[in-house]
UniProtKB/TrEMBL annotation:
Monomer. The keyword Transferase applies. Phosphoenolpyruvate binds at residues 64, 137, 165, 213, 395, 439. GO terms for cellular component: cytoplasm. It is found in: Cytoplasm. The active site is at 364 (proton acceptor). This is 3-phosphoshikimate 1-carboxyvinyltransferase.
Length: 482
């Protein structure tokens, strides 16, 4: 259960926390500290049904990964960072509030336009209250890196989904850098208390899995280190932190490492210079439109300004292999990232084998790819999905259960998900459990737009974490939700 409400003073987000009650946080749109509010609400069920084709133009919201990083680098530089196109979803609003708590002045100046006056590397304030990240693993993990590299102590907490997610993968390198964990829940989970290192030890760290969150946490901690911090990743993961650090003037080098890996070296204690940031459209949100327009017969949709960073476009590559009809137009650079307009028309898909090596470039897109696979002819095998088990929900199980509810029989073999496609004729008809996971919610709503019978999801409120305008924007294209 969860709910987001727009009020005169800001956005109030309610999430299940204590005694079955919903504890809400009121995020000010100005520079006031967030406040806790209490309210009881019930889950928002939502049903998607098949209607006419989807048609028109849509601009996806700002990229979530870049939005978090823009606020965080704003906090870590001295002077004013102006951000345009910031994703105003709950996850990012939590990060904005945490930046305020650590000493930044963060103000919304217009729709998607924010201004951050930071304090600079080495000059953060010790927070007076628990840092609450809501549903956001990225916000929490990146901020653990920031705190881990500063001589301050902070408590970290989040909602029921975030409390289940592993944090040891972040704490391990931070401990090597000199941080201390003062309190933690079982298995290195939150709520936890971290005491950062005032003089973080420069380390060379090999990430055990391809994870931009681990890489970013180590680099952010390394910013306040007197030496050179090196991160080696076995396979390249999204590189927004490296790009933005360079853009803000840090000394950072990126080399290839092994077949698909990368080695990133960062000189500590840079003076980060604020620079304006234009946040490009989020390919992980555009993914829902891309698949919906492909599976709803007769659709013809233009997705404007989607980020084309190759470490984020694995879904597009896969859909093209499956036979999707996507024209990539007007490739251009915006805010340091390549973007393009995509024209997507409905198409018949065929099943494919998706290699494990592609996972880092589409890690958040497997739920919606599984939906596309349900509408394909033949089998789709998605390999190497172990990391899906530690997302906002156990996405491997949640996707399989959702497909079953909609009349598809998937199989999980080891870390692979196998879906036998039903061509254009997917039964639908079930109630899908979303487990506080926005991407499960949106994926199965998209399935319901093209299946024979409507599909209901148990709670649509978490969609506000990443794509608050999903419903009205999709309805403008012709989607039928009720
Ligand atoms: C993200 C990295 C990915 C992704 C998450 C956002 C980021 O997680 O799933 O939604 O912004 O760094 P991992 O790095 O743990 O794979």
């Amino acid at each position: 259960m969860g709910l987001a409400l727009m009020t005169k003073r800001g956005v109030a987000c309610y999430q299940p926390k204590r005694d079955g009650k919903l504890i809400g946080t009121l995020f000010s749109l100005y520079n006031d500290p967030a406040q806790e509010v209490l309210m009881e609400v019930s889950a928002q069920r939502l049903t998607a049904r098949r209607g006419g084709p989807l048609r028109g133009r849509i601009k996806p919201p700002g990229d979530k990964s870049i939005s978090h990083r823009a606020l965080i680098l704003g906090l870590l530089s001295i002077g004013e960072t102006a951000i345009e196109g910031l994703l105003e979803g709950d996850d990012v609003l939590h990060t904005a509030d945490v930046c305020r708590e650590l000493g930044a002045d963060v103000v919304r100046t217009g729709e998607g336009c924010w201004r951050v006056r930071g304090c600079g590397v080495g000059s953060l304030l010790a927070p007076r209250k628990t840092l609450d990240f809501g549903n956001s693993g990225t916000g929490m993990r990146l901020m653990m890196g920031v705190v881990g590299g500063h001589g301050i102590t902070a408590s970290f907490d989040g909602d029921a989904s975030l409390r289940k997610r592993p944090m040891r993968r972040i704490l391990d390198p931070l401990l090597l850098m000199g941080a201390e964990v003062l309190k933690q829940a079982e298995g290195g989970r939150c709520p936890l208390e971290l005491k950062g290192a005032s003089e973080p030890i420069p380390i060379e760290y090999r990430t055990p899995v391809a994870s931009a969150q681990i890489k970013s946490a180590v680099l952010l901690a390394g910013l306040n280190s007197p030496g050179r911090t090196v991160v080696i990743e076995p396979e390249a993961s999204r590189d927004h932190t490296e790009r933005m650090l360079k853009y803000f003037g840090a000394g950072i080098e990126v080399e290839s490492f092994g077949e698909n890996g990368r080695k990133i070296s960062l000189e500590g204690r840079p003076e980060l210079r604020p620079a304006p940031i234009a946040v490009p459209g989020d390919p992980s949100s555009a993914a829902f439109v891309l698949v919906a327009a492909t599976i709803v017969p007769g659709s013809d949709v233009i997705i404007e300004s989607m980020m084309m960073n190759p470490l984020r476009t694995g879904l597009l590559t896969t859909l093209l292999e499956m036979g999707a009809d996507v024209e990539i137009n007007d490739r251009r650079e915006e805010g340091g990232e390549e973007v393009a307009d995509l024209r997507v028309r409905a198409a018949e898909l065929r099943g494919v084998d998706v290699p494990a090596g592609r996972a880092p470039s589409m890690i958040d897109e497997y739920p919606i790819l599984a939906v596309a696979a349900a509408f394909a002819h033949g089998q789709t095998r998605m390999r190497g999905l172990n990391e899906l088990r530690v997302k906002e929900s156990d996405r491997l199980e949640a996707v399989a259960a959702g497909l079953r509810a909609a009349g598809i029989e998937p199989r999980i073999i080891g870390d692979d998900l196998i879906v036998e496609g039903h061509g254009g004729d997917v039964p639908g008809g079930g109630l899908v459990a979303t487990h506080l996971d926005h991407r499960i919610a949106m994926s199965f709503l998209c399935l319901g737009l093209a299946s024979r019978r409507p599909v209901e999801i148990d709670d649509a409120s978490m969609i506000a974490t990443s794509f608050p305008t999903f419903r009205p924007q999709m309805e403008r294209l012709g989607a039928q939700f009720a």
